[in-house]
Specification:
The structure is a single chain. The chain has 202 residues and is α/β, with parallel strands linked by helices. It has helices at 5-26, 45-53, 81-92, 185-193, and strands at residues 57-58, 71-74, 96-99, 110-113, 118-120, 133-135, 139-141, 149-151, 156-161, 164-169, 200-201. The strands form four sheets. A five-stranded mixed beta sheet has the order 2-3-10-9-8, with helices on one face. A hairpin with a 4-residue loop joins strand 8 and strand 9. The longest helix is centred in the first third of the chain and has 22 residues, at 5-26. The radius of gyration is 16 Å and the shape is globular.
Length: 202
C-alpha cells in the first residue's frame, strides 16, 4: 500500500531535522551563504546530505554539467552568457536544471517578489505530485508561457526545453539549512534531486 503524501512529508521532515542536527554539530560554519559545504543557517550542507541519503550521487563544484550528470542545481546564478549557453545546451540534451535564483535569466520573469514566505497548492507535474506546501520562497514567477507548469502559486515553474527541463524555484530559501525541515521543503528537494537511487547530481 502506498504511503500518503502527508505521511511521507512527516517522515521526510523528521529525517531532515535529524540530518540538520548532525550537520550543525560536525560541520564548518565559516563559509559563504548558499555554499553546499556550509552548515550555517544560510548554507546548503543539509541539502547535500538529504540528497545523498535518498540515494543520489552528489558532486560539488561542477560549473557546467556533462553527460555523466542527471540533475544540476544552481542556488545563485554566476554564469556569464557563454556559461548559460553551455548549461542550456546540456538541458536540451536531456538534463534537469533546478534554478533557485529568481534573478537568473534562466528563469521566467518574476510576478512578484518580497514577503512570499509560503507557497501552497497542488502541482500538475508528476515529479512534484503530493507536495502540499513550500516554506521560504522569496517570490513567484509570471505566467509567461502557457506550456509551463506553474506550481505553488507560481513559486515553482517547470519548463520543458528540448529533451530536458528547467525547474525554477522562487528563491533558495526552501533548500537552505534553516528551512529544509519545514513544511514539505525536504520532500521537494528529494523529488527534484533524488527521484531515483543513483541519480547523479551536480
Amino acid at each position: 500500500m502506498r504511503a500518503r503524501p502527508a505521511t511521507l512529508a512527516f517522515w521526510g521532515g523528521l529525517v531532515v531535522a535529524l540530518v540538520i542536527v548532525a550537520v550543525v554539530i560536525t560541520g564548518d560554519r565559516n563559509r559563504e551563504p548558499l555554499d553546499p559545504r556550509s552548515v550555517a543557517p544560510d548554507g546548503a550542507r543539509a541539502l547535500v546530505e538529504v540528497a545523498e541519503r535518498a540515494g543520489a550521487d552528489v558532486a560539488i563544484g561542477i560549473e557546467i554539467p556533462g553527460a555523466d550528470i542527471d540533475v544540476a542545481i544552481v542556488l545563485a546564478d554566476t554564469y556569464g552568457v557563454a556559461g548559460r549557453a553551455d548549461v542550456t545546451a546540456w538541458v536540451r540534451r536531456g538534463g534537469r536544471l533546478v534554478v533557485a535564483d529568481p534573478q537568473s535569466p534562466l528563469t521566467p520573469p518574476p510576478a512578484r517578489t518580497g514577503a512570499t514566505s509560503v507557497g501552497a497548492g497542488a502541482c500538475a507535474d508528476p515529479a512534484l505530485a503530493g507536495i502540499g506546501r513550500i516554506v521560504g520562497l522569496d517570490g513567484a514567477y509570471a505566467d509567461s508561457d502557457p506550456a509551463d507548469v506553474r506550481c505553488f502559486g507560481g513559486g515553482v515553474v517547470v519548463e520543458e526545453l528540448g529533451d530536458g527541463v528547467i525547474v525554477s524555484i522562487g528563491g533558495p530559501g526552501p533548500l537552505l539549512n534553516e528551512s529544509l525541515a519545514e513544511a514539505d521543503n525536504a520532500v521537494l528537494a528529494v523529488a527534484l534531486l533524488a527521484p531515483t537511487r543513483g541519480t547523479r547530481v551536480a
